[in-house]
Amino acid sequence: MNRTRTLCLCLALAVGFALTAQAAPKPGGTLVFGRGGDSVGLDPAYETDGNSFMIGDNVFEALVSYKDESVELEPGLAESWTISPDGLTYTFKLRRGVTFHDGTPFNANAVVFSHGRQMKERKVKFFGQGWEIPPQERTPEYWVSMEMDKTVEAIEAVDEYTVVYRLKRVEAPFLANLGMDFADIISPTAFLKNPKEFVRNPVGTGPFRFVKWVKDDQIVLEKNKQYWDKRGGPYLDRVIFRAIPENSVRFLELKTGNIHICQFPNPADIELAKKDPKMKLVSQPGMNIGYLGFNHTKEPWKSNVKLRKAIAHAINRKAIVDNIYQGQGQLARNNIPPTMWGYNEQVPLIEYSVEKAKALLAEAGYPEGKGLEEITLWSMPVARPYNPEGLKVGVAMVADLAKVGIRARVVSYEWGTYLKRQREQPPDMDLFQLGWTGDNGDPDNFLAVLFDGLASSAIRTQWHNERYHELMVRGRQTTDPAQRAEIYKQANLLLYEEMPVIPIAHSTVTWPMLKKVMDFKLHPTASIRMKNVWLEK
Amino acid sequence: MGAFILRRILILFPTLLGVSIIVFLMLHLTPGDPAELLLGERASPEALAELREHLGLNRPLLEQYGLFLKRLLRFDLGETIWTRQKVAIEIRQRFPATIELSVAALLISCTMGVLLGIVSATRQYSLFDYLSMLGALVGVSMPIFWLGLVFMLIFSVNLGWLPISGRLSVGVELEVITNFYLLDALLTNNLEAFRDALWHLILPAVTLSTIPTAIVARMTRSAMLEVLRQDYIKTARAKGLSPFQVIFKHALRNALIPVVTTVGLQFGVLLGGAILTETIFAWPGVGKWMYDAVMQRDYMVIQNGTLLIAGLFVVINLAVDVLYAVINPRISVR
C-alpha cells in the first residue's frame, strides 16, 4: 500500500516536472543579475576575467559554440566545417543572413578581421574589399596563452561565406579554442569607428545588444529583435548586470526581489535559500581542479614517487572538501573534472590512510618522517574558483602531515608574488597549492598545460616524464575524438601512478535565484547565457 | 587674506609632489605585479613580458616616475592598467558619487553632532547628556561594515522603507549630466529620479556619518561647556537675553572654532570610511575604485587617486583656516 502511494506520488511529481519543463516561455520583462564585480572591459580579444566575459557571452558569438551544460561543440556562426585529412586546413561555411547589431552584415571578412587583429604576423586575406587592421593596443592575452600564433599560419576569406584557416601544426584542440570568448566575432565597422572605444561599446551578433554601462554599477543589455536563430530566445526585453560587491548584501537584494539571480553567495546563504519559498538553487559542477603540487626541480620530490604517494595518502582530502569547501566541492579522482571527456573512472580514488602513508614513507626511505627537514607548504592567499580558502586548506594539510611524522609549515605571499615565485620553482618551495579553471573544455587544456613539463619551461608543475609527454603530443596530433579520449584516459591513469601532483577537489557552483527565473542553466565554462532565459509572470 | 590664500595654494604643489613620491615608492617597493595579477594562473612568460613592456613596467623606476610626472604636468593622468580607460574619465565618473555621499554624511554629522553637543552641554549630567555621550562612544567604536548591514536589515529588508544598495533603482531613468545624481535630477526636472536617488543616499550617508557625528558631538559638548563658564556668558545672561540668544549668538560662535577644525579633519576620515561604505552599499565611487586598484596593483589609479584625495585634503584644510577668520574676526590670517 505504502509502496503504491509512493509510486503514485513519484508519478505525480514526474508529471508535474514534465509540465513545468514544457511550460512555454513567455517573452518580456527585465532580469537583474547580481554579481560580485564590474566588468573590466568588453572587447573579447583582450579580456581575462569572468565578469567581462559574461557580457560578451550575450552580445557576441563565435564560429562554434558549446552546447548547453556541456563542452561538446555545435555550430555557431559557422554552419558547418571540414578538416583536411592532414589536419592542417580548416574550412568553415558561414551562416547567411546574420547581421551585427549596428547593421553591418556578418561575413567571412568579419571573421578574418576579428581573428586577424589578434595575430602577431597578420597573414590574412580578405574577400574583395577588406579593411585595414589597426595595430594592437596591447597583447591579446588569450590568443597568446592558447598559443594561437604558434598554431595559425594564415586566415583567408575564400568567398563571402567561406573562411579557411591554415595551420602550422596539427592541433586537435584548435576547434574548441574557436568557441572561446577571445574568438568571438566583432563588427569591423563598429571597431574601426573608434578602435580605442570598442572596449566600452561592444557590437556583435548575439541575442542581446549592448545599451549602456554605468561603471561599477550596472551594464544594460536589450533584446536583439533581429536575432538570426529563431529556435529559441531571446525572451527577455532587458538584462541588467548589477555589481554588488558584498556577498551578503547581494543575497539581501535577492531576498527582497530586487535582483533575480545572486552569483557567488556565502555558503551559509545557500542554506537560507533552500528554505525560502521564493527561491531555488541551480548547480553545476565547475570545470576546474584544485591540486597540491610538488617542486619537481628538487629532490626528494623529483624522483621519489613513494614519498609523493605517502603524502597523498596522508592528507584527509574528504575532510577538506566537507569542511572548507562546505559542500560546494567534489573530491577529485582525476586531474580533470568528471564532466569532461577523457575522464577515467578506472583511476582509483586516493585513499586517506595514515597506516598506508606511514608504510610508504618508510619504503621511501623516511620512516616516521626521519631524514626529512621541515618542508614548506605554499598556500594561496586568495579565494579561487577551485579553492575557496587556500590558507585554511594549508593549515589542515600541515596537521595531516604531522600525523605521519612529516613536519611542514604554511608559507604564503601576496597573490601576484605567489604566482611569480611559484613559476620560478625556488628551492624554498616544497609543496604548493594551485589549480586551474578550464578554458575550452578540451582535456589538453588541463593535462598538457598543467603537467607536461617537458613541453615548456613555462608549465607550472615542472614534472618531466617522457611517457606522459609522448601521450600529450599524440593527443594534440590525433583528430579522432574517440582515440583522443583513450589517450587522455591513459594520461589520467599515469598521473595516478606517478602522482606528480595530488588532485584535491573540483568545486561546484551553486547560485540561488528567484523561482520565477526559468531555463537558466549554468555552463561548465562559467559562461552566463541569457538567450533562453525567461521570467514567469 | 589674499596673500595668505595664495601662499597656501602654492604650498599645495610641494605637498602633492611629496605625496606622489611617497606613493610611487611605496607602490613599487611593495611586492605585487599588475601584469601577473592580470594574467593569473595561465600567464605564459611571453605574455607577461609583452604586457610588462606595454605597460612600461620594465623600465627603471626613476624613468617611470619621470614619465608619470611629465604627463601630470601636461594634465594627462594617463590610462588605467586594467580597464584601459583614461584615468581622468574614470575619476569624473566616480568622484561625484563619493562627494555626494561624503557631503551628505558631513551635513548629517554637522547638524546632528552640533545639536547633540549643545543640548548635552546645556543639560550637563542629565539623562539626555549621558545617553547621547554613550551613543557617541558607541558610534565611534561601531564598525561601519557591521552597522551598514544592520541598517539594511532593519530599514530595507524588515521595514521596507529604504532601498538596500546602489544609487538608483532599476527602471528609474535619469539623464546623467554631472554624475551628481541629485543635481542631475533637478537639472532635468526629474522628480521621480530625485526622490529615488535621495532615498538611496540615506542609508549609506547615515552609516558613513556615525563616526564623525560622534566626534563632532563630543567636541561641541566640551567646547560649549568651556565657553558657557566664561564671564561674558554670565554678562549676557545678566543682561536678560533669552537662553536661545545666549547659546546661539554668544556661546556657539566661540565654541565652534575647535569644532570647525574637527569637521575639516573629519572630511578626510569620511573619504577613508567611504571605501567600506561604498563596498557594502554597492556605491560606485572613488573609495571602491581605489580599493580594487590596490588589490589589482593598478598603479595609475592608485597614484592619481591618492593625489586627488591629498589635494582635496589640503584644499579643505585651507578652507577651514579661512572659515576661522569668518567665524571669529579676532583671528586674523597672516
Task: Describe the 3D structure.
The complex is a heterodimer of chains A (537) and B (334). By secondary structure, chain A is an alpha+beta fold. Chain A has helices at residues 2-22, 50-59, 108-116, 141-145, 148-151, 174-177, 188-193, 247-255, 267-275, 305-314, 317-323, 354-363, 390-403, 415-424, 444-451, 466-477, 481-498, and strands at residues 30-35, 64-66, 73-75, 78-83, 89-94, 124-125, 152-159, 162-167, 208-214, 218-223, 238-243, 261-262, 279-285, 288-294, 329-331, 375-378, 408-411, 431-437, 501-514, 517-518, 534-535. Among the domains of chain A are: 61-194, Dipeptide-binding Protein, domain 1 (Alpha-Beta Complex), CATH 3.90.76.10; 288-508, Roll (Dipeptide-binding Protein, domain 3). Chain A contains 17 helices and 21 strands. In chain A, the strands form five sheets. In chain A, strands 13, 14, 15, 16, 17, 18 and 19 form a seven-stranded mixed sheet that branches. A five-stranded mixed sheet of chain A has the order 9-10-11-1-12, sandwiched between helices. In chain A, a hairpin with a 3-residue loop joins strand 9 (208-214) and strand 10 (218-223). In chain A, helix 16 (466-477) packs antiparallel against helix 17 (481-498). The longest helix of chain A is centred in the N-terminal third of the chain and has 21 residues, at 2-22. The radius of gyration of chain A is 25 Å and the shape is globular. Chain B is mainly alpha-helical. In chain B, 76% of the residues lie in helices and 0% in strands. In chain B, helix 8 crosses helix 9. The radius of gyration of chain B is 24 Å and the shape is globular. Chain B starts with a helix and ends in a 7-residue tail after the last helix. The mean pLDDT of chain B is 86. The chains are: A alpha+beta (537), B mainly alpha (334).
